[in-house]
Amino acid sequence: xxxSSPTAEIVVVGGGIAALxxxxxxxxxxxxxxxxxxxxxxxxxxxxxxxxxxxxxxxxAHRRPLRAIADDLxxxxxxxxxxxxxxxxRRVVLRRGDPLPYDSLVLAHGAQTVPAFEGVIALGGTxxxxxxxxxxxxxxxxxxxxxxFVAPSxxxxxxxxxxxxxxxxxxxxxxxxxxxxxxxxxxxxxGAEASATVxxxxxxxxxxxxxxxxxxxxxxxxxVAGGSISADRIVALPLVRGLRIAGIPAGGEFGLIxxxxxxxxxxxxxxxxxxxxxxxxxxxxxxxxxxxxxxxxAIAAPAGSEPFTPVLRATLLAGTAAPIPVGDGAGNDEPAQxxxxxxxxxxxxxxxxxxx
Length: 356
Ligand SMILES: Cc1cc2nc3c(=O)[nH]c(=O)nc-3n(C[C@H](O)[C@H](O)[C@H](O)COP(=O)(O)OP(=O)(O)OC[C@H]3O[C@@H](n4cnc5c(N)ncnc54)[C@H](O)[C@@H]3O)c2cc1C
What we know:
Residues 9-292 form the FAD/NAD(P)-binding domain. With 356 residues, the protein is α/β, with parallel strands linked by helices. 26% of the residues lie in helices and 25% in strands. The chain folds into two domains: 8-110 and 243-316 and 332-355, 3-Layer(bba) Sandwich (FAD/NAD(P)-binding domain), CATH 3.50.50.60; 115-238, 3-Layer(bba) Sandwich (FAD/NAD(P)-binding domain), CATH 3.50.50.60. Helix 6 links the parallel strand 13 (176-180) and strand 14. The protein binds flavin-adenine dinucleotide.
């Protein structure tokens, strides 16, 4: 942690899982040695998974005013979007014009989604759960008899696509479901054991798993090498792209922020990034939380901190009755709908306070 002032000024950009986990982890690791300013474009923290899964969560939908969280954690909240960073002058510049100085800066401002195909139901940042609900109703009413679920790339939010495919088969009416992906095995990033678990779930649900394909959608059909798959409806993941902030490097074709295993932004001093904003290919709340924990440790105690070593773990909800934990250590714990070592208990505590 830089020592230019007795209390280091940490600026955190974002208001999602990565930003809040970072704040909580940093409070734990550095206590009052840091002053934290959270710069968030939106007024509320929204836990996307609860919206996305379109399945009632044990904790309900999570939407909390960031103002209340910031007051609770002793954090200064600046409700504004960051436009640029001046790494030499060590300040961020808000879109409305004013600068904010920092000793350490953490970028946790997520990613943007770009539709991969036209004329499909897109699972994405601005979650289309209404369209998915309508789709399930159409299947239940027998009006839709076949659905193709398509992952256009290996990077991104793959877990919800599998979830949506499994949910489609539970709509109470026979439907032909195919899942087309560039992966070689189902959810391959989560490891061989997870793949086997998911493959068994897909097979049990009668889903046709079509692996290793770079799919295109042409005139309402999914084109793959050597053929085409026709379906009444197509559901596709969007492409993941970086949200550009001037002064911050953007890597490769996806424009995401290149980081090392401590979350340090390559080429910049005392600038870190965590969550969907980074170039780590798996986009998931639990990954965002782990990256934030590694960054908090690196800021609080750079000499002894542990690098980010991803433990990939998710829960396929697959209908409320049968959640399927997949990945490292799956089955040792309850399904983790709320990610984050510090964020999950914090939100649970707030729920209990509200309920009391
Ligand atoms: C369809 C779908 C389903 C998903 N399902 C699950 C699931 O079941 N379980 C799970 O764990 N994960 C799931 N995820 C992934 C999970 O939602 C993301 O990985 C996670 O939200 C990433 O958190 P983040 O904090 O990095 O980014 P975000 O949650 O995107 O937060 C970014 C924040 O930064 C703010 N911001 C953006 N630009 C600026 C700026 N310039 N200045 C200031 N603030 C800014 C935004 O307003 C936002 O508050 C799903 C994602 C999708 C799209």
